[in-house]
């Protein structure tokens, strides 16, 4: 198994600098990851660094809270594609999902998908499962299946939920959610596991549960161990 081809190497932390971006692209090129996933402001720079390689440029839309207007998300998507993005990871409007406004959610995903297809990019829809119950996740799976999106994705990695002790925790990708999403999405839709995955064992478990793409920031550490470095 060429593990690198499953990986979107991510450099999405709010404090990530241009130097961090350049290092992330170096890692993507060295190991041949599927993409390097960057902040929207970094797309053009990443496209230059990765030009001529098989490593794609992935970016995020409405990240991480999903609350932008649909029009802004569409504009953000178009600009990202024009700047060189080949894959678009959009966050659903989480409040609309929780509130059950499925018409709004479907219309938004549809418009963003149209924008990606017009620019020869693909769409991944981020559910942010930490905030959702299973019925909401299943409904999103059905909706995305009806729209024929390329991927559904578990989380941003920044969906922090307040715990009983007052601390905030983001679980991210769980085997339960990956299994649920695989069961309720049409077979042609791929699944991206993202958030909280930091070891080779966790990557392999996600793949076993149905993921065909994994969002990671610990890419080099994991792949060095695979190579025995």
Structural write-up:
It is a single chain. With 229 residues, this protein is α/β, with parallel strands linked by helices. The chain has a single domain (3-227), classed as Alpha-Beta Barrel (TIM Barrel). The chain has 9 helices and 10 strands. Strands 1-2-3-4-5-6-9-10 form an 8-stranded parallel beta barrel, surrounded by 6 helices. The mean pLDDT is 95.
Helix-strand category: alpha/beta
Globally, the shape reads: globular
Tally of DSSP helical segments: 9
Q: Which residues form runs of ≥5 with pLDDT under 50?
A: none
The percent range for strand residues is: 15-25%
> Which architecture does the CATH hierarchy give at level 2?
Alpha-Beta Barrel
CATH fold call: TIM Barrel
Mean pLDDT: 95
How do the helices and strands follow one another from N- to C-terminus?
EHEHEHEHHEHEEEHEHEH
Terminal CA distance reads 17 Å
Overview in brief:
The protein has 229 residues and is an alpha/beta fold. The chain has one domain: Aldolase class I (TIM Barrel, Alpha-Beta Barrel).
